[in-house]
Amino acid sequence: MASKTNSLEDFRKNREMMNEKIMDLNHLGIKRFFNLDHNTYQDGALPAQTKELLGLVASAVLRCNDCIDYHLEQCAKSGSTKEEIIDALNVAMVVGGSIVIPHLRHSISTIEALEEEGLL
Amino acid sequence: MASKTNSLEDFRKNREMMNEKIMDLNHLGIKRFFNLDHNTYQDGALPAQTKELLGLVASAVLRCNDCIDYHLEQCAKSGSTKEEIIDALNVAMVVGGSIVIPHLRHSISTIEALEEEGLL
Amino acid sequence: MASKTNSLEDFRKNREMMNEKIMDLNHLGIKRFFNLDHNTYQDGALPAQTKELLGLVASAVLRCNDCIDYHLEQCAKSGSTKEEIIDALNVAMVVGGSIVIPHLRHSISTIEALEEEGLL
Amino acid sequence: MASKTNSLEDFRKNREMMNEKIMDLNHLGIKRFFNLDHNTYQDGALPAQTKELLGLVASAVLRCNDCIDYHLEQCAKSGSTKEEIIDALNVAMVVGGSIVIPHLRHSISTIEALEEEGLL
Amino acid sequence: MASKTNSLEDFRKNREMMNEKIMDLNHLGIKRFFNLDHNTYQDGALPAQTKELLGLVASAVLRCNDCIDYHLEQCAKSGSTKEEIIDALNVAMVVGGSIVIPHLRHSISTIEALEEEGLL
Amino acid sequence: MASKTNSLEDFRKNREMMNEKIMDLNHLGIKRFFNLDHNTYQDGALPAQTKELLGLVASAVLRCNDCIDYHLEQCAKSGSTKEEIIDALNVAMVVGGSIVIPHLRHSISTIEALEEEGLL
Predict the structure, then answer these.
(1) Is B58 in contact with A91 (Cβ distance < 8 A)?
(2) Containing domain of residue B102, as a range?
(3) D66 in Cβ contact with F63 (< 8 Å)
(4) What is the DSSP string of A5-57?
């Protein structure tokens, strides 16, 4: 399913390009928020791996596919297995209800793309 | 702050009483959902401790104090430290924004009550 | 559980008093919205009874106890039975997830109060 | 507007394919949730037709186009007329506000597709 | 980036076409809501320019790209500068959290399209 | 209505006390977020007065009474009149729907308390 891999790759490129444009706005508050956001997922009292799972579940119950895709990749890179990611998404579905299911479907597509890339 | 301990205790009693009344409704779908919900936080691909942190963050970004209180207690009982819980709530605040802050304040009150009870 | 009946009665009085104050603001847009909101639940292509169930489920998944209480009473008055109301709340819980459960507990309290008043 | 019919058909195929992949994950909790979700809309204290309208309104106020499309089709199949569906969507718009309007526009497209297919 | 301009133009055309279809439904409640919605942003105690910024921030924290695009254009037309719009979006991001960031990225695209059209 | 004034005063004291406890946690990410949040409402491309109205509307559509109370006071202190605040809340109600009405009722109570204190 090369098309899906491309779709994830398109998301990454678009995300990076738009984030650069946002930085170029030179709005101090926005810059600081982006920096704060990035630091949130570094090792702290909780390891980065757990925090990425938390970010994934928060994104899933708030139903944002872009955020889900970003955290799915970070979950994979920080060492979570596919089974652990699915188990986290199950928590999101139970807390957030059937309205989360379309985002579970989306997640499976992205997980497939990450598997094809060898990241998961 | 004994009053806060009482408040947490009141929440527990009311929660248990109302859950029993819900079971007494004898609605099969509701009963099954409650059972499913309970099983969600058992050890699986992810340990119960991690799942409770996921439930806490999902509850915080969806901004439900009752759900937060329940998961705070379960986080404590499943072995998370205060520092880990605070780190998880920080993720919730960054993902969910300043609108989560009143729930962070609420969480601190409940964390104090759990500390007084020796659960955290 | 007289206290609960009083609590529902307090809600009604406070709601009516505050709505009058809102009308007294004399903001044309707000007045028109309140009028529009009232008309929404009149018989139309769907009967009022069904629309009140729709309003109840919308209120439950959006997790607003005041709105739930209002529509629970309207559901009772427009002819829905307790069993039908519980079945509607089950739909809300499945769509909206476990985060809806505290509002299910709240609903049961209000349903009890409506039963004591002979409205349900 | 054949393209729209195709779009609805694409949604159905993709939904079915992804749901099968989700079942293939063999996660017991997810499987049970999907089963529970399916049973929620069967005849009970309320008839399936009413429950599908409840599912539609819940989906609309929570603003999920995939969920809206699914329930629109189920509403049509369980016997609701276009006028009744529009009346239900009006309740959703009033409860959920103007933020629901883009989903009303989306619904109209899907309703047209269902009409072309003879389902509505 | 002509493609983006086209995309904004496509959104406008589709929005107008679908709104006409909604009016053609001849549902009195829906018609009145659309009229009420339109009047909300006229000069009142607050000038239209401020109200459009309010509509933009409300749309951003509720995370609706179509609503964001509409209000971005209205903000530009009612006299807000790009810097003011960015400052408003920053408020939305801080209140609503990192989950708003994908909508900030979307907003930047639309702002670029409005600049190319000479509207901003 | 002295009791309401006391209620607003209670909110302020509790908010300040809990915020101090949050600072005492010494979590760098949380501290930075609080600082960032505070700076968001300072004069920038938009004046503080407008930003507070934006914060109020964001809080109202996200339905957080504590956030509404905080921004209502800041709106009053930064120079908005009661009429302007009501006009902003009307935008919130139209965007967010009837589910916002209970928070409009709450806002009226707080506005009364601010009037009694001479802040509005």
Answers:
(1) yes
(2) 4-40+47-116
(3) no
(4) HHHHHHHHHHHHHHHHHHHHT--HHHHHHHHHHHHHTSSSSS-HHHHHHHHHH
Which residue on chain C is closest to E33 by alpha carbon?
C36
Alpha carbon distance F36, F30 (integer Å): 10
Nearest CA to A61 out of C97, B100, F63 is that of C97
Q: Identify which of D48, D29, D32 has the alpha carbon closest to the alpha carbon of residue D40.
A: D48
C71–D contact, CB cutoff 8 A: no
Which residues does chain C have within 8 Å of residue D59's beta carbon, measured at their own beta carbons?
Answer: 95
What CATH number did the domain enclosing B62 receive?
1.20.1290.10
Whether pTM > 0.90 for this model: the answer is yes
Q: What digits encode the pLDDT tens for the residues B32-48?
A: 999 999 999 999 999 99
Can you tell me which residue has the tokens 């609960």?
C4
**Shortest CA gap D104–chain A (Å):** 17
Q: Could C33 and F104 be called an inter-chain contact, meaning their C-beta atoms sit closer than 8 Å?
A: no
Cβ neighbours, 10 Å, residue F48: 18
Cα(A73)–Cα(A87) distance, integer angstroms? 16
Model confidence pLDDT, tens digit, residues A89-116: 999 999 999 999 999 999 999 999 999 9
Give the pLDDT confidence of E48-77 residue by residue, as tens digits. Answer: 999 999 999 999 999 999 999 999 999 999
- Note the pLDDT tens digit of each residue in C92-107: 999 999 999 999 999 9
Give the integer Cα–Cα distance in Å for F29 and F47. 27
Rounded to an integer, what distance in angstroms lies between the CA atom of residue E62 and that of residue E95?
11
Residue A64, Cβ density class (10 Å: 0-12 exposed, 13-18 middle, ≥19 buried):
buried
Share the mean pLDDT of chain C.
Answer: 95
Which two tokens mark A80? 């979570």
Cβ-based neighbours of C84, under 8 Å, separated by 6 or more: C53, C75, D45, D46
Q: ∠E83-E88-E90 over CA atoms, to 5°? A: 95
Q: What's the rounded Cα separation, in Å, for the pair A50 and F72? A: 38
Sign of CA dihedral E90, E94, E98, E102: negative
Question: With an 8 Å Cβ cutoff, is A15 touching chain E?
Answer: yes
Distance CA A102, CA A79 (A): 25
Asked whether residue B68 carries a pLDDT value surpassing 50, the answer given is yes
* Cα B113 from Cα E4, distance rounded (Å): 54
Q: How many domains in chain C?
A: 1
What separation in angstroms does the CA of F116 have from each of C64, D74, F2, F110, F119?
A: 29, 54, 8, 10, 8
DSSP chain D: -HHHHHHHHHHHHHHHHHHHHHHHT--HHHHHHHHHHHHHTSSSSS-HHHHHHHHHHHHHHTT-HHHHHHHHHHHHHTT--HHHHHHHHHHHHHHH-GGGHHHHHHHHHHHHHHHHTT--
Question: Alpha-carbon distance E91 to E96, whole Å?
Answer: 8
Contacts 24+ apart (CB under 8 A), E24-29: E25/D86, E25/D108, E27/D86, E27/D87, E27/D90, E29/C36, E29/C39, E29/C40, E29/C44, E29/D90, E29/D94
Does ipTM top 0.90? Answer: yes
Place of tokens 């749309």: E59
The partner residue sitting opposite A36, judged by closest CB among F36, F40, F44, is F36
- Cβ contacts of residue B1 below 8 Å, gap of 6+? B112, B113, B116
Which of C95, C103, C120 has the highest number of chain D CBs within 10 A, making it the mutation to test binding with D? Answer: C95
Contact by Cβ (8 Å): A37, E98: yes
State residue F6's pLDDT score: 73
Cβ neighbours around F41 below 10 Å, total: 21
Torsion angle of the four alpha carbons A100, A106, A112, A117, in this order, in degrees rounded to the nearest 10 = -120
Chain A interface includes F29 (CB < 8 A): yes
- Up-side HSE of residue E67: CA atoms within 13 Å toward CB? 26
